[in-house]
Amino acid sequence: METWRLLLLSSLVLLVLAALIAAGAIVQVQQRQKRSRQAVQAALDRSGVATVAASSKPMEMLRSLNAGEALPLHWLNTSWGKALVAGEDRALLGRCGWGSTRAQLQYLLARCACALLLPLLVAMVFARGPMLVFWLFAAFTVGFLLPKWVLLRVAARRKACVARELPLLVDLLGLLQGTGMSLDQTLQVIGSDFGHVMPVLSREVQLANQQYSRGSTRERAFGRMSEVYQNENLAGLTSLMIQIDKYGGAVQEPLRVFGDRLREQRKAKMKELIGKISVKMTGVMVMTLLPALIIVTAGPGFLAVIRALGAMNK
C-alpha cells in the first residue's frame, strides 16, 4: 500500500513538473517575441517610417523570424483542447475581455496546472490518510473547475459594469453627435478618451472600431459586443448605431428617448431591490428584535407569576 502511494505521488510530481516546464517554455517564447517586436518598432521609430506600406516589409521579416517559435495555439484545435476550453469557456473569456487565442491558451494551461497542483498538495497533506483517493478526486475536480469559477465571477462583474455604464454611453453619444461629429469620430473619441469613466464599454467600443478599420462591417463589429454580454439594452443601442451608420438622419431625439427609457428601467430595478430588502429585513427583525421585545414587555409579568407561585409553595 505504501509503495502504491509513493508511485502515485511520484507520478503527480512528474506531471506537475512537465506542466511547469511547458508553461515556462511558452512564457519564454512570448518574451522573445515581445522583445523582437519592440526592437523592430524601435528601429522603425528611429528611421522615421510611419506609413503602413513602408513598415509592412519589416513586419513580414519579424513574422518570418518568429515563424519557427510560434506559440502552440494548435493545442486549442485538438480534441483535448476543445474539451478543456469548450465553446462556453471561450464565450466567458470574451465576456471577461480575454477573447484572444493567446488568452484561450493561457486558460488551457491554467486549468491543467490547477488540476495537477491541487491533487499534489492533497497527496502531500493526506499521504497516509485512509481516504486518499477520495481527496485526490475532489482536489482534481476543484482544480479543474477553479479557473471557470474565476471566469464566471469576472464575467458577472463586467456584465454589471456594462449595465451601469450604458446610460453614460448613451448620453455621450447624444452629446458628441450634437456637437456635429460624425459617428466614426464619436466612437473614436469614446474609445480613446473615456476609458477612465467607462472601462468596459470604452474598451469594447475601441475593439469594435479596430475591427471596422480592418475591413469588418459595422453590423458585425457591434453585433459581437451585444452577443458577448447578452444585454437587451446594449443590443438595442448597437442596432440603433447600425441604422444611424446606414441611413444617417437626426439621432439626438432617439438617443434621448433611449436614455430616458434606461433611466426608468434603472428606477424600476432599484424599487424592486428596495422591496426585496424590506422583505429580508422583516425576517432579520423577527429574529433579532422580537426576542428582545418579548423580554422587555413580558419579562416583568413572567417574573411576577414566578414570584407568586413561589410564595404559594411557601
From TrEMBL:
Keyword Lipoprotein among record annotations:
no
Organism (species)? Comamonas guangdongensis
Tell me the InterPro entries matching this sequence: T2SS_GspF_dom
Keywords, ordered alphabetically: Cell membrane, Membrane, Transmembrane, Transmembrane helix
PANTHER family assigned: INTEGRAL MEMBRANE PROTEIN-RELATED, PILUS ASSEMBLE PROTEIN
Q: Where are the transmembrane segments?
A: 6-27, 108-126, 132-151, 284-309
Q: How does it sit in the membrane?
A: Multi-pass membrane protein
Where is the Type II secretion system protein GspF domain positioned along the sequence?
Answer: 170-296
The protein's matches in Pfam families, at most eight in alphabetical order, are given as:
T2SSF
**Broad class of where this protein is predominantly found:** membrane
The yes or no answer to whether the keyword Ribosomal protein is present is no
Q: Where in the cell is it found?
A: Cell membrane
According to UniProt, the name of this protein is: Type II secretion system F family protein
Its lineage reads: Bacteria, Pseudomonadati, Pseudomonadota, Betaproteobacteria, Burkholderiales
